[in-house]
Amino acid sequence: MSSKFIDAHEAARWVASGDTVCTVGMTLIGAAESILSAIEARFLTAGEPRDLTLLHAAGQSDRQRGIQHFAHPGMVTRLIGSHWGLAPRWMAMINNNEVEAVPAAGADRSSL
Predict the structure, then answer these.
(1) What are phi and psi for residue 29, nearest 5 degrees?
(2) For the domain 16-105, what is the CATH superfamily, name and number?
């Protein structure tokens, strides 16, 4: 019987430039940390995936992990979420207009 499981690095290869990535959970509860880290590693070494839309329902970070893995110029062009209080790199990118930030409650689904 073949395995139905893949490792984090294989999962990271499934994310293409321009895709929308959605994470679930709050703080780091429910975060797929190993997959988020593997996607970041792929971006830092190969330059892709890039121009992602990142959608999260609640602040999914502890100031270092979680969605912080995606806080690199060019990796994400649109960030849709509800709280960035524990994500200082995202707050800096938002303040510097390096990423489009859309509050989750006000997101127009037709633009996703």
Answers:
(1) -70, 120
(2) Glutaconate Coenzyme A-transferase (3.40.1080.10)
Return d(Cα 59, Cα 80) in angstroms, integer.
Answer: 11
pLDDT tens digit sequence for 30-68:
889 999 999 999 999 999 999 999 998 777 888 889 999
What Rg value do the Cα atoms of the chain yield, rounded? 14
3, amino acid identity: S
**pLDDT tens-digit profile of 58-91?**
778 888 899 999 999 999 999 998 888 888 999 9
Distance CA 32, CA 24 (A): 9
Q: Is the peptide bond before 103 cis (omega within 30 degrees of 0)?
A: no
Q: What pTM was estimated for this model as a whole?
A: 0.87
